[in-house]
Design a protein that fits this description.
The protein is of the alpha/beta class and about 350 residues long. It folds into 2 domains: about 160 residues, Rossmann fold (3-Layer(aba) Sandwich), CATH 3.40.50.720; about 170 residues, Dihydrodipicolinate Reductase, domain 2 (2-Layer Sandwich), CATH 3.30.360. About 30% of the residues lie in helices and about 25% in strands. The strands form 2 sheets. Strands 8-9-10-7-11-12-13-14 form an 8-stranded mixed β-sheet. Strands 3-2-1-4-5-6 form a 6-stranded parallel β-sheet, sandwiched between helices. Helix 1 packs across helix 8, helix 5 packs antiparallel against helix 9 and helix 7 packs across helix 9. The longest helix is centred in the last third of the chain and has 19 residues. It is globular and about 70 Å long. The termini are far apart.
């Protein structure tokens, strides 16, 4: 594998500072993903000079002397990076991504969401049609994580029988957070048929621009030639009241139910048996997770962002797509926008 020059745009938690948080059980920064995959940390960029200086100084304590810039255009001119990691928010995404593609950067590893408006997403979609050289990975991390991919394969291959319903919860903003789910579900389903939404009584108090929406999305499930409803529920109010899990998924089928819990770090499986109360009816019963296939166990070490970097590098070197490319991310965010528009009608 080639050693690539990587520039980090945005020196906040996801860009840099989470790398030094010893409480995290996994790598949760672009700097960490860069260093732990053996690539060269070639530049730091942040418009906030104080944050930039702090990040640079902290890295230098760990023997990493890195050029620092307050303007990403200057960084492009002087460093010419192979890969950029963008953790500076949607407004920066819609400026940096076109510039990087125009300069034929080999790869972009970008924090989600790509944008918070359909107009900005449409501009990126047009850009993607013309993009031939640059591979893009958007950080909808479950798409390239082994356990989540194995769960979808288990469901798709009939592990819980005929898929009947899915219930999913998210915390704090349908546009910023919920596309984690719709990005993942693209790997299970074969298109969206309808969307309905209502405003959640649990309001997102962190920003008025990104409401909490409850709703139903009807997908087509080709392996079983059936439509499946996905029930969507917001469970948290954003940063000020962040006491519920951001992400859960519950798949119910004719043979059982599998539930992804604790932000993807725990799994519960129940199998369908005859009810002890109503003899002619089925009822789910707890099933020992030790009996689950190894790939469905959620207690092994998890490295979402490192997996994402390897996926991007593999795409650069083979010409294949990343696990969550620009088209995938835009489609996921479009469904979230559709929920918001349905609620507003």
């Amino acid at each position: 594998m080639t050693n690539y020059k990587v520039a980090i745009i945005g020196c906040g938690p996801l860009g840099v500072t989470n790398f030094f948080d010893q409480s995290l059980p996994f790598t949760y920064s672009f700097v960490g993903a860069t260093i732990k995959t053996g690539n060269q940390l070639a530049a730091l960029v942040d418009v906030n000079a104080e944050a930039l200086h702090s990040a640079k100084k902290t890295l230098e304590k760990n023997s990493s002397v890195v050029p620092a810039f307050t303007d990403w255009r200057t960084m492009f001119d002087q460093i010419n990076p192979d890969i950029i990691c963008v953790a500076a928010g949607p407004k920066v995404n819609v400026e940096v991504i076109p510039e990087a593609i125009g300069r034929k950067v080999k790869g972009i590893y970008c924090e989600k969401p790509l944008a918070l408006s359909l107009e900005a997403n449409d501009r990126l979609a047009e850009l993607e049609k013309q993009n031939q050289a640059t591979k893009i990975q958007v950080n909808y991390a479950r798409n390239y994580e082994t356990f989540h991919k194995a769960t979808l394969d288990f469901v798709k291959n009939g592990g819980i029988g005929n898929l009947q319903t899915i219930r999913t919860t998210y915390n704090g903003g349908v546009l910023a957070v919920f596309p984690h789910t719709t990005a993942l579900l693209q790997k299970l389903f074969d298109g969206v048929k309808s969307v309905s939404g209502i405003y959640s009584p649990i309001t997102n108090i962190s920003t008025a621009d990104d409401p909490n929406i409850d709703g139903t999305i009807k997908y087509y499930f080709a392996p079983q030639d059936r439509d499946v409803n996905v029930q969507v529920l917001a469970t948290g109010r954003g940063k000020e009241e962040n006491n519920t899990y951001i992400y859960e998924l519950e798949f119910t089928g004719s043979k059982g139910r599998i539930t992804i819990l604790e932000n993807g770090f725990r799994v519960r499986y129940e199998e369908m048996r005859l009810s002890r109360i109503f003899a002619s009816s089925g009822q789910t019963h707890p099933y020992e997770t030790t009996h689950l296939p190894l790939e469905l166990k959620a207690d092994h070490p998890r490295e979402f962002m490192i997996d994402g970097m390897y996926s991007l590098i593999n795409a650069i070197e083979t010409g294949k797509d990343t696990d969550c490319n620009l088209r995938c991310a835009l489609a996921a965010e479009e469904v979230a926008h559709a929920l918001a528009l349905a609620a507003a009608q």
